[in-house]
Design goal:
By secondary structure, the protein is of the alpha+beta class. It contains 2 helices and 2 strands; from the N terminus they run H-E-H-E.
């Protein structure tokens, strides 16, 4: 139970950090085709690692609270 709370807390922290960094981006019209309703992110963690599980949960929570936003996720090796 403590481990799942740690994973959830890590996911929430990562989500908050990624949203904060996204908010820092330039919102000008010269964004080379960027869509205002798409969040694109990627990481190097495997899907079964602790951070991979936390990312999956963070993405799930973000989608639930932002139904109009598409999440484009790329796992990098």
């Amino acid at each position: 139970m403590v481990r799942s709370r740690s994973i959830l807390a890590a996911g929430a922290l990562l989500l908050a950090a990624s949203l904060g960094l996204t908010a820092c981006g330039d919102s000008g019209s010269g964004d080379e085709g960027a869509d205002a309703k798409t969040l694109t992110l990627w990481h190097y963690e495997g899907p079964t690692s602790a951070m991979g599980v936390a990312w999956a949960k963070a993405i799930e929570l973000f989608k639930a609270s932002h139904p109009g936003v598409e999440v484009k996720f790329e796992e990098r090796a």
